Amino acid sequence: MPQLKPPKCNMLMDGEKCLEAKGMKEVIFFVALYLVALGSGCVKPNMMAHGADQFDINNSPKESKKLSRYFNAAYFAFSVGELIALTVLVWVQTHSGMDVGFGVSAAVMAMGLLSLISGSFLYRNKPPQRSIFTPLAQVIVAAIKKRNHSFPSDHNVSKSDGVTGIQRFRFLDKACIKIEEGTNTRKESPWRLCSVSQVEQVKILISVIPIFACTIIFNTILAQLQTFSVQQGSSMNTKLTKNFNIPPASLQAIPYILLLFIVPLYDTFFVPFARRITGHDSGITPIQRIGTGLFLCTFSMVAAAIMENKRRNEAVQNGNLISIFWITPQFLIFGLSEMFTAVGLIEFFYKQSLKGMQSFLMAMTYCSYSFGFYLSSILVSLVNKITSHYSSNTKGWLGDNNLNKDRLDLFYWMLAILSFINFLNYIFCSRWYQRSLATEGVLHHGDSNIQELQNSNWTSSKVVGDDSIP
């Protein structure tokens, strides 16, 4: 609708004279953007969790193997969507306009909605649970209220029930202590007395936060590949033939082209081979898969730094534009890294969760994207501010918006070092996480065991009138 658009203007030539969208134009624009964010936030974590719910992993070992295949297949489908968006849609937007591109996207989403509805009678649907935040808050409040109370001698009730709990954060176990007054046991509110399963949920959440945090740097690097790498491509020779130039924005399709081949090969050949060696349903554990991805991510930045140094030297010293295909290695390595990290993180969160936490923990994986992209913008600002005082360029490494004057190669080297440090930190966090579990399968038990613990508590006597216990 022309009345919702500001006057046409060339931002590169007449940027200062261009009129901004204001008033209702601005409101509609931002409402549309935030609706996209809201829709993505609703679809992504719930779609993954809903698909995984179709597999009865607690009662069937075969379906547990299928669950790992599902995560790989779901990521393959995601890669296909990204590839179409970065090639077909980019071409449509370039030749027919943004409005047509958005229209095509809306039509495809409508088809997806119809597909989802058409299978609604075939799904396994878990009934809605109460909010997980209330039970989590109750555990913390109850543990604080009983912080001065000592454990009874038989407080390891979870072991006697055949399920070993997380051995760290023992102070939270005090939320399970029942107070006995004489021969009677006091009936306490949920904010003073919690079940063992509630406490285990809080422990799980605390335990997985360091693993989650280690993926933020990974997504910071993803943000750089989606921004500066496109700018790199614009400064290179984009000609494929005399009449066809490669759109720099389509460079992001390279990892997804790789994934279309790698994911099926990984699932068909590597997983069965590794399964014979490790005995694990997924071939390698999700922890090992995430670590492999974070390790490879470092080399993506190393390749990017080397390539940018070559591109800059050729442009500044010889006036040559090297081929855009030189940028391919950094995308290929990152694509391989993303296959390990992204899928491993989703599988890790789903398998480590207790009842009612699957969708919440799935949502955490997408929060990592948000934190990573936000950290990316902070890093760029900090680097410019710091390097403006110590480099010949008074605007900093990235301040000129001209790659031939900026030092993007040094920024990439900094990210490579940061990524490697993050990998070392991940090794420490993953070992800490595994040591916090009493056994390898502590969080892989079925819901039947949880039900046994649902009303389990530890009883401790209290003398009436004893004010030392809050």
Helix content: 55-70%
| First-last Cα distance | 65 Å
Q: What's the tally of helices?
A: 14
Strand content: under 5%
Order of helices and strands: HHHHHHEEHHHHHHHHE
State mean pLDDT (0 to 100 scale).
Answer: 79
**Low-pLDDT regions:** 155-164, 438-456, 461-470
| Major sheet strand order | 2-1-3
Structural class: mainly alpha
Notes on the structure:
This protein has a three-stranded mixed beta sheet, with no helix packed on it. The C terminus is likely disordered. A hairpin with a 2-residue loop joins strand 1 and strand 2. It is an all-alpha fold and 470 residues long. The protein has 14 helices and three strands. Helix 8 runs parallel beside helix 10, helix 9 packs across helix 11 and helix 10 packs antiparallel against helix 11.
Question: In a few lines, what is going on in this structure?
Answer:
With 470 residues, the chain is mostly helical. The protein has helices at 11-14, 24-52, 61-96, 98-118, 133-145, 157-160, 196-214, 216-234, 253-278, 286-318, 328-352, 358-387, 408-435, 447-453; strands spanning 177-181, 184-185, 458-462. Strands 2-1-3 form a three-stranded mixed beta sheet, with no helix packed on it.
